[in-house]
Specification:
Four copies of one chain form a homotetramer. The radius of gyration of chain A is 21 Å and the shape is globular. In chain A, 36% of the residues lie in helices and 22% in strands. In chain A, a hairpin with a 2-residue loop joins strand 10 and strand 11. The longest helix of chain A is centred in the last third of the chain and has 21 residues. Chain A has twelve helices and 14 strands. Chains in contact: A-B, A-C, A-D, B-C, B-D, C-D. At the C-D interface, strand 6, strand 7, strand 8, strand 9 and strand 10 of C face strand 6, strand 7, strand 8, strand 9 and strand 10 of D. Chains A, B, C, D: This is Gfo/Idh/MocA family oxidoreductase.
């Protein structure tokens, strides 16, 4: 083993400065396990805010940049023992593509928030670049980092439920039930601006998580879909609510609901998968429970931390059962996978698949296609829009 | 007041003999409040089973009939002080129409199980007959008898949620996940036989409850719908699973799911209604709780029996809060409404609307239309099928 | 088989008139299964109210009595084919003893509400009379009628939990948190009056249910106890709150809490039993669920109506799983047991123990002892008061 | 403001090496907010394990010590800009006293795990030293770091519940239901060894958390208590289960249960507080919910992250509602308080009370008294043992 396991990795962040939400989550998630440290950044599109944000985070002045190109240039000039091992991109959506592509082309490993990019062409370009450069590229579909999602994946894929028949996935929030974007809320503003958010609102922001959750747990591919997208809040140019009927290859059927106007609901991502032999239910707001309803026996509640879980779920857990883990731990599990993959590359070895368990650029590209197909269906008079 | 309030009403039952399920529920529901007693019956399509069933229920021999026409003929010959006040029809679906029509045409009040009849033409004929004869006609969409459904209705209609935007209603069961109809299960057999059940399986059997629940609580009318119906169990001629996108007049959107192949789920009817000001959630399996999520305050759990509920909910309750009431009480509330209406007719007075609160023949007719439109959509290539 | 199975049993009720609570529950519970009918009564200590109440219930005038002695005298004069098969006593506590003793001594079967009587001497006298007369005597510790309590009993007694170590039983209500008895509330008034209620308030009214629940499920006997009884509401002469430490023969330890000043709690009876191999949890407010936590596997939720429950639990159920049953059904299960026992006596056969499953006079007597020992401990300076 | 807010604080850890549990939790909690970094340690009582553990954590060799005295000596020799700002003590209980006293006497700020020390004399000595030296001293009663515990404290203390009457606190675990200490489990071994754990087992390990939770939320003082302590697992010298009746000054009454033999239960700390106007319920396993049951209105579920919470609860939250936070965040909140207090001392200013919100050495001392009084009561024949 090389020296790489005896040091923390170094990372930079693009976006995530003052007023941002998700950047701090990424940083806390990375800090949790002490395997990487923030050494550089371009933390805002506003140079002043970027610098001030970097000082908040104790960045050295010469690594605290006013824009991402400055960061990239500077890193390329630094010696290997100072240079970052990866960059974390947590900007609004429209910046994902140029930043990610530039860092990948420069040979850096990347973690990028979702949805990956705006268009399928961008997604394809990014997939190609990652393949060409051989870099690690993680997409933070963070909900798949929960241990009990991994347990669900293991149970579905090992056939515990039998043939999958019906999938219902919902992602309900209420925070955009009023026109927050008109009241100076930065989070609401960029999400409801097509130039920054892309062709979709709720479907892109949270529907893509729902799509990824289904794909991750079941491995099933969507064959066709039928979407109804709505914009309930007057003056909002993008959807704030959507419902889809789904048909999967192989015969399973599904429903996907994503809504940000469900007043009073907080972050209600939930999944129900029924197979011929049983059903699984999981809810993000009680992430440490997975309910298994066998067709021929009592309901079982599996909880995080139990010794009878699959190895993938057990590894994704830091505390004994009953000691609540949450959102940041799930995030940290994705970063743990990325870091394991980077360490393997640094060491010139193959990564342990159980360790390097995180959504890849291809998952991000599939999510972009999901958004595009959903928007196409929403404006079509045909019942089914092919994938 | 006439003498009618000083006596129990008399009723007959058609169907509901040995091996039946729902007939006993009707009888227990009626018995609960002691306002009516079973005096006659034609309890099965098999004359021998009908007679044996009547003896189980302590029917007098001369009022224990082998077929429903014999019952009707006999009742018409009896003097007023012996004659039944109403008949309860709890046969498989295909018998609802001839029996109900005959009793209505003969001037009897009727309670009939759902779905009302097989076709819109039959439904129209029945609505006409009831209007012409002026009889009381209740349809046992029993889930609307729960006190907290009535509370939800009151809150939605009085504007607590603001303008309604999104409705998600699900009715999930797992008991038909295997081919029970091939194993001698009578309940499964008639439900999956088009001749007895009609054009739909799960959508008719339980989807119609979901439709009625939405209509009752919100008063909204469906404008168009988009249905995907499936039959997962090999050899089953009717749907055992369905999902619909709904568009309501006035702009609300919805999803309706009805499935009988959700392994491990029991009787999971649930409703979520989001308006601009708040959301309501209700689940049949915890019927005494209604969750209200205001947009601007903490979640509230309203429970049956509390003094701050609306009068309609308070009247529908027999026990103090915390003393569980259930399915039979909800059923009994519908019968309570029918009986109040019959007593008013006997007394020649107008019924108290809060007392005579039950689904009418028109609700049954709307349910038939829902089934028909859903089946039409399921075979259409157009996205939206108009109501 | 004699003719007795071909007729409904006849019963009378003492107490339970207008303004009463529990009498109506008894009547509804009996009506539910149609195996017995109310034919006579002395429904209140006020003759006028008794008569008016009887008319509400459609009693014949000559069987509608102004006092219980009149009822008893009249029944003794009637021919066997008219005479009641049993009497149901639902008066305030202080009347249980004279009424029950008189009917037993006259050879009638009796169902009596709890707590049975005021003193151990009365309890002994009643136990003796029942033994001497050979009558059926049921005590309506209704919570043991729930199917999942019977399932818990079966699991504990068949060793699923291993050796029992710790028992925590709570019965929390909030309705007496203010001085309702000073505001004309009849239920509150007699419960807080020592002359009508006996030596204890909350401990007698609801603590006795908790004691019975533990005894029924576990079969364990209390060896000694340590009680702290309190009266929080000024001017209330009896306890409205109590907590006990319990030591059971054989080494198990326990805690019993009974309180009627737990503001906002409704009827929160709950039981947790831990053995060396697992734990069971049950809550009256969700009576159809029994949670089993094995030491070495995932939590299991057993639900009413499932085919894998014990026969005793299955028999105590009327509806499929997921169709909520409640308080009245549990009550009806006790009456079902009493009626099965009476039918067996009428037929001169031995009752099926699985059918004749109900709390006996001895259970009532043990409950009286529990109250007496608790009150003794509450005024003792010794830590442990022997049973 | 001094430069101190522009740098991370430096800390050392004593204990918490390989095989330990809670040390890693402390480190993750501190890392979460990026306000302090681990620069030195003596991570095990075994010098080799200590060194190996330090290397795992990327400690510099010259600050990676084989024993705590070496660490202390070294720190005292270092210049201010290298020296630690505080030490975190996460050893088994018996080492808390000597280590904490030595660091306090040397003028270092300290965070120490609970229970604080073995005896009241030790506790008094530590309280004196802290007062004399003016150092910051935090005790990681971590459950008080949950936002909804702070919300409960605010509601109770501001009178929302009215006069407090009844308190029920339970802390149930099942992991010590078998003799794990005989199977090489290090966590079980030291906890059941009186030399390392002190005079109590479960009551010290988890009962002390329950005591602290009640004291923190209510501010009430125990007047007298009555304890039953048990050791169910053969061969275990300390209690693994205990139940107490509590009497508080001012008239409130309570029950405290702490058990580690509740098979199947995970980390079930729960609190219920009833006052004259309402009840609060909180469960550690669902830490982001606080249930408020007003006497005169529907149940309310308050959730972490809502804008209507008190400022103390709002400040203790890092993510929007619905994004689960857990155990580590609660821990981090205590460290946040300690760090705020240290920063204020470094700056020579008074700490913001809302920021410097953490359990102090006096809370630890009161916990030691609680254990001592409980053990005294358990062996007493008197009902009540005075505080």
């Amino acid at each position: 083993m090389t020296e790489t396991s005896f040091r923390r990795l170094r990372y930079a962040m693009v976006g995530g400065g003052r007023d941002a939400f998700i950047g701090a989550v990424h940083r806390k998630a990375i800090a949790l396990d002490g395997q990487a440290e923030l050494v550089a950044g371009a933390l805002s599109s506003s140079p002043e805010k970027a610098k001030a944000s970097g000082r908040d985070l104790f960045l050295a002045d010469d690594r605290n940049h006013g824009d991402w190109r400055g960061l990239l240039d500077d890193e390329l000039k630094r010696p290997a023992h100072e240079r970052i091992d990866f960059v974390s991109i947590v900007t609004p959506n429209h910046m994902h593509f140029p930043v990610a592509l530039a860092f990948v082309e420069a040979g850096f490993h990347v973690v990028c928030d979702k949805p990956l990019v705006h268009t399928r062409a961008q997604a394809d370009a990014l997939v190609d670049a990652v393949a060409r450069m051989g870099t690690v590229f993680g997409v933070t579909y963070n909900y798949t980092g929960y241990p009990m999602v991994r347990q669900a994946r293991d149970m579905v894929r090992s056939g515990v439920l039998g043939e999958i028949r019906k999938i219902v996935v919902e992602y309900n929030q209420g925070w955009l039930a009023t026109r927050l974007e008109g009241e100076g809320n930065k989070q609401a503003a960029w999400r409801s601006d097509p130039a920054q958010s892309g062709a979709a609102g709720a479907i892109g922001d949270i529907g893509s998580h729902a799509e990824n959750l289904v794909a991750t747990v079941t491995g099933l591919e969507i064959e066709s879909l039928c979407a109804d997208l709505n914009s309930f809040v007057p003056g909002r140019p993008l959807d704030d609510d959507g419902s889809l009927l789904l048909r999967f290859k192989g015969g399973a059927r599904g429903v996907l609901i994503a809504s940000q106007i469900n007043t009073g609901l907080e972050n209600d991502l939930r999944l129900r998968i029924s197979g011929a032999q049983g059903t699984l239910e999981w809810r993000q707001e009680r992430p440490s429970e997975l309910t298994h309803l066998p067709h021929d026996g009592p309901k079982r509640i599996l909880t995080r931390g139990a010794p009878w879980l699959c190895e993938s779920a057990r590894r994704a857990s830091r505390l004994p059962s009953g000691h609540p883990e949450g959102f940041i731990e799930a995030f940290a599990n994705l970063y743990g996978g990325v870091i394991a993959d980077i360490r393997a590359k640094l060491a010139g070895t193959a990564a342990d698949p159980l360790a390097a368990d995180y959504p890849r650029v291809e998952d991000g590209a599939r999510g972009v296609r999901f958004i595009e197909r959903t928007v196409a269906s929403a404006t079509s008079e045909a019942k089914w829009t092919a994938w």
